[in-house]
Amino acid sequence: MVQTAHLSTPAMIDLMERMPVYCTYRGEDEAAAAEKDFRHALGGMLKDCGDRLLNVAERKGNLLGAEQNATIDELIDRIGAIFRRLDREGIVCLVGDCHATIAELEELDTRLILLVEEAAQLVRALEGGVPSSAWFKDEAGRLSRDLQSFSEMAEERNYLLGLGWESEFTWPGRTS
């Protein structure tokens, strides 16, 4: 069930304004430019999350244990993997029936926005007054799962848009 995003920051508003409107694309160049713009906005929010995680590690480094520092490193690695998926370039060529693919892309975009918003909220909670040990116990796993889901959805978008080498192969579970 998709919930609505909380427009809590200017970055969220900017991201939603950059959401692609697929049915208005008039050519490959326009589609590629709009895609790049949206991907950069998503990447910018994830970069902010990664920077905040690094700041916590630097600021609270002597208060964090080895396991907590390893968790932060793992989360930052997941963000790096997402960047590689968001950085795919090429000719945008929708897979399958255009109307069905556009509907699927719009749903994925909404879910990505919700995930990046939740990731930002979880990272802000670590920076704030929440005791870090409680955050690592309760929220780090949730953030890791969110980032994994984000990565998978980003690759699904690549497939639907015909971008990236993975898109040359059938996406797992698809027949088209």
Order of helices and strands: HHHHHH
For the record, the CATH architecture stands as: Up-down Bundle
Major β-sheet profile:
none
The proportion of residues in beta strands is under 5%
Could you tell me the CATH topology label. Answer: I/LWEQ domain
Strand element count: 0
Distance between the termini: 26 Å
C-alpha geometry: elongated
Helix content: 55-70%
- Runs in which pLDDT lies below 50 for 5 or more consecutive residues are 1-7, 167-171
Per DSSP, the total helix count is: 6
Q: What is the rounded Rg?
A: 17 Å
Structural features, described:
There is one protein chain. With about 180 residues, the protein is an all-alpha fold. It has one domain: Up-down Bundle (I/LWEQ domain), CATH 1.20.1410. It is built from 6 helices and no strands. It has helices spanning about 10-15, 30-60, 65-85, 100-125, 130-140, 140-160. It starts with 9 loop residues before the first helix and ends in a 15-residue tail after the last helix. The model is unreliable at about 1-5 and about 165-170 (pLDDT under 50).
What is the topology?
Elements: H1 10-17, H2 28-59, H3 66-86, H4 98-127, H5 132-138, H6 140-161
Helix pairs in contact: 1-2, 2-3, 2-4, 3-6, 4-6
Explain briefly what this protein structure is.
This protein has 176 residues and is mainly α. Helix content is 68%, strand content 0%.
Key phrases:
176 residues, mainly alpha, I/LWEQ domain, disordered N terminus
